[in-house]
């Protein structure tokens, strides 16, 4: 690797992941891109997670382990990890996830080829218009999310962010479960995003993940969507916003009818709540 290659800060937050963290760390250490630091910030694990992380730090000086004095929680801990970073780029890899050996190399080479990009997302299905990488302006990013295949649902594992941009916008909000969804909206308001292909990272699914309770936060996701679509900094035209919100309302009504006919009353209840929230937010911003 040439000496001019930018430093990447790989950020790994951990909390009771003794079953997975070794695999996550080893995936980073196996990277073909070698100019990185791996910052692990443990949030008060009560199992062997911290012990495992320290063992790797003792063997490789690129691995740095930090311990929070008190439990911060998901997004505050992500911000803590970023505050310790020295790299040009921030790359989140959770302690139960995995990055392929070529992953950092692909991400960095694509980002370096598009210096105007403030951030990037990978693990995306192919775009029918052209091959990746694909640079989107703020307006195009919002359209890609709300009128295309979707974008802002991606987890931090799929992201790479310039540290100066991350610091500029103040990092993740502390909204539980929804901080990444909020972050992508916030980043996309001001900074072009670079879309990159699948096959760079691997997201592990298991029963211990909080995302398994994601449905409980459906209204919060809805609130974040309205917050950014109706903000003065939204890059979309007013008519586009009206059309997007109208289409979303129509979908909710159709889903309520669909699940009512199938006697799925628990799902109907969830969608009625979302519809009420949709109407409330729409009226409040008129």
Total strand segments: 10
Strand content: 15-25%
CATH names the topology of the largest domain as Spore Coat Polysaccharide Biosynthesis Protein SpsA, Chain A
Q: Are there runs of 5+ residues with pLDDT below 50, and where?
A: none
Q: Do you know the CATH architecture of the largest domain?
A: Alpha-Beta Complex
Task: Describe, in plain words, how this protein is organized in 3D.
By secondary structure, the chain is an alpha/beta fold. It contains ten helices and ten strands. The protein has helices at 21-29, 49-59, 74-83, 103-113, 138-146, 163-169, 179-190, 218-229, 238-261, 265-284, and strands spanning 8-14, 36-42, 63-67, 89-92, 98-99, 119-124, 134-136, 159-162, 193-197, 201-202. The chain has an eight-stranded mixed sheet, sandwiched between helices. Strands 5-10 form a two-stranded antiparallel sheet. α2 (49-59) links the parallel β2 and β3. α5 crosses α7 (179-190) and α8 packs parallel to α10 (265-284). Helix content is 44%, strand content 16%. It folds into two domains: 8-212, Spore Coat Polysaccharide Biosynthesis Protein SpsA, Chain A; 214-284. It is globular and about 60 Å long.
